[in-house]
Sequence to fold (137 residues):
Amino acid sequence: MASLKDLIRGADDIRSQDDVEIPEWAPGALFRVTGLPSGDWEKYQNSLTKMTRRDEASGIEMTIQSRKAEIVAKALRDQETGELVFPDLREGISILSKRSGGIVNGLFNLVRHLSDEDRDFTQKVAAAEADFGDGQS
Fold:
């Protein structure tokens, strides 16, 4: 019997969605959009808010940064090959940052959903329990 660590390591828990069409970008092409692992989401969330100190007299300044193009670039794949559309992340961010905000935002929301980042803890537990079925305790 495998150890719990080995079971977790081998779990196929990153969801994906095939048959995603973006006719404005590539008519007739089908994309696969994948969820992202926990580490990528944590890095993204930590990068959203950057606090900088201007000087002692003025205190703290907070800057909000959107990095949706980065998340989409990490999750958008060619459905036929499974390869990332943007293997060079910087290039992907540069290209996506100049594309329709509505399309990029829609893809970002799909990645967020596939990564279970749009559900609270209680919803995630309920879904996990349902996935195990009646035979598990």
